[in-house]
Amino acid sequence: MKTKRFKLGALSIALATGLMIFSGCESLTNTQKGVGIGAAAGGAVGALIGKKAGNTAVGAIIGAAIGGTAGGFIGKRMDKQAEAIKNAIPNAEVIREGEGIIVKFDNGILFDFDKSELKDVAKSNIKSLASSLNQYPGTDIKIIGHTDSRGTAEYNLGLSERRAAAVKAYAVSQGVPASRLVTIGKGYTEPIADNETDLGRSQNRRVEIVIVANDQLKQEAKNQGN
Known about the structure:
Layout: H1 2-23, H2 30-50, H3 55-64, H4 68-88, E1 93-97, E2 100-106, H5 107-110, H6 120-135, E3 139-146, H7 153-173, E4 181-185, H8 198-204, E5 206-213, H9 215-224
Parallel strand pairs: 3-4
Antiparallel strand pairs: 1-2, 2-5, 3-5
Helix pairs in contact: 1-2, 2-4, 4-6, 4-9, 6-7
Protein name: OmpA family protein
Pfam families: Gly-zipper_Omp, OmpA
Keywords: Cell outer membrane, Membrane, Signal
């Protein structure tokens, strides 16, 4: 229930903010207002209703959105990068929402049970992802680790942090600047499925990589609209 209330609250804030800012500005064209509202509301709706990602990932995309024609420029850039990632990493789930991208890996693809050392296939996946990140340098990346609910909260938090750190370390070894990468461990606090079933627990064990525009790309996008 807490997760649902948080998500509904985030959605309401995104909708209200988008409507107040973009509908209330007389200097914006109808097209600009539409793009702005779509970035604040449409992307949030897609992520929240789909329940494909945790609150931290969804919040990162909502928080980074700037809307307007600049947001539309960023969205087009993200469309291209998302398509490239889908083609390069077929066993990852790529979610395009608002002005960002969420790349989701099942922990079973990346790690053995209860381990934080990357498997060989994981290294191949992250190498492909790193190549895309290097081709699109105008972004910041959050790496978010999640676990299922078995075990203590303290242990699962530590495991999720170690796994996120392992993904970051390998991405850095493949040329992605460490300054672009932030790691977050959430343990079992952001489930996307029922922890009472084997299938649900397998879905909750995951790593989410959130890609959003950095300040430089946002400024470039704003300049394009001038």
